[in-house]
Amino acid sequence: MPARFVVAVALIAMLLTSASLARQSRPTSKTSPTTDSGQQKTKPKAADDDTPSSDDSLKLGTDLVNVLFTAVDRNNRIITDIRQEDIAVLEDGRAQQIFTFKRETTLPINIAILIDLSGSQEYTFPQEKMAAGEFLRSVVRPGKDFASILTFQDDVELVQGLTSRIDTLGRAFEEIQYSRRLSPSTSRRQATALYDAVYITSDEVLARDSARSATDDSVSRRAIILLTDGVDNASSRKLEEAVDRAWRSGIVIYSIGIGDRFRFEGVREDVLKRMSDETGGRAYFPRGPDELLDNFHQIESELRSQYLIAYSPTNIAHDGSFRRIEVRLAARPDVRVISRRGYYATSEEVKK
Q: Is the pLDDT of residue 27 over 70?
C-alpha cells in the first residue's frame, strides 16, 4: 500500500475523532438540568444577580412566640425606657433566648367593644356609650385599625362588625338603646351571659386568621374592651372556657367594672381581674364619669405603648399543650410587667 494513501487515511480518522469529541462537549439543550425526580434544578444565583428570590426558608413565624407587654410603675404610669438587657423570658419556668425586642407604637389594632345591657347597667349605660364612642374616635386609624361593637344580656348581639370607618361606628353607637327584657316566669333583667359573650367575641369576631400559627400575633393586636359588672348567671360556658378562648385567639381583655351597686350585687372585681390578668390586659373600676373617661385614655395609652418580644421556644414539641409565659424585669423592681400568661403550642395537625 502506497505511503501517501496510509497518511491520508490517518488524517481523515483524526479529523473524524476531533469532530465527535467536539459534539460531545457541547450541551445538547438549553433546558436546566433536572433532579432525580424529574424537576428542574434552580440556576445558582450569581453574586451580582439582583433578581428576587423566594424567602420561604426564612419564614420563622411559625416557630417564634411573640409576646406584647406593657410596663408600668407603682402609680400605673407607662414606662418607656425598658431595654432588652433588662428582660428575662421564661416558658414553663425555663429561660428563653430573645430574638427580637422593640417598642411597638404603630401595630394595627382590632378592637371589640363589648357592652353589658343587663339590668345592672340601666343607669350607667349612657356614660358607657359616650366614653366608648369617644375612645374609638380617638384610637381607630382609618384604613389601619378596625373595631366592632357588641352588646349582651342573656344572649349576644353583633351591633357592628369589624370596620375602619369612624362614621359607621358612630351610627352603630347611636342605634344602641337600653331596654328592659322580661320573661313570663321570672325577671330577666338580671340575666347576664358574660362568659358566653367573651367566648363568642373571641371565637367569631376577633378570631386569629386560621392560616397563621397559634403563636403568631404579628398581624395585629386584638383587644376586647369589656364594660360590665362581672356578674354571670346565664352562660352555658364557664369562666375558664372564656379565658381559654381568648388565649387561643391572642386576645387581650381590658375590663371596666361598672354597674348599679345599689340595686344589684355589685361589681365582681375578682372575675374581671382574672380575665384581664390572664390575657395581658388590666381591670379598671371607675367611681364616676370622669374616672370612666380616664380609664379609656389609659387603655389607649397602653395599646400604643407596648413592647414586643419574640423567642424560639426550647420546647420544640408540637403537641398543642398550653405553655406558661413569664416576663421578668429583675433589675427594675419598681416596674410591673403586664402581659399574657401563656399560649397554646401548635399541634402536629397544624404543622402538617
A: no
Q: What is the pLDDT of residues 237-255, one digit of tens each?
A: 999 999 999 999 999 999 9
Instruction: Say if domain 61-105+308-351 classifies as CATH 2.60.40.
Output: yes
| Helical spans, DSSP H, in the chain | 3-25, 125-139, 166-175, 194-200, 239-248, 269-279, 289-304, 348-351
CA dihedral 312, 314, 315, 318 (to 10 degrees): 30
48-63 in b/e form (b: 16+ CB < 10 A) is eeeeeeeeeeeeeeee
The DSSP bridge pattern shows strands 221-228 and 251-257 to be parallel
**Phi then psi for 319, rounded to 5 degrees?**
-110, 5
DSSP assigned state of 148: E
Q: Enter the C-alpha cell of residue 196.
A: 358566653
Angle at 351 between CA 203 and CA 99, to 5 degrees: 90
As a whole number of angstroms, the distance between CA 315 and CA 317 comes to 6
Q: Could you give the C-alpha distances from 56 to 257, 296, 298, in angstroms and in order? A: 46, 41, 40
Q: What CATH superfamily classification does 109-304 receive?
A: von Willebrand factor, type A domain (3.40.50.410)
CB count in 10 Å sphere of residue 93: 7
Query: Position 94: which residue type?
Result: R
**Joined grid coordinates for residue 298:** 389609659
Domain ranges of the chain: 61-105+308-351, 109-304
Question: pLDDT (tens digit, 9 = 90+) per residue, 48-59?
Answer: 333 333 333 223
The alpha-carbon radius of gyration of the chain (Å, integer) is 31
**Host H or E run for residue 222:** strand 221-228
Q: What span, in angstroms and rounded, lies between the C-alpha atoms of 106 and 304?
A: 7
Is the pTM higher than 0.70? The answer reads yes
d(CA 149, CA 282): 20
Which one, of 92, 228, 110, lies nearest residue 162 by Cα? 110
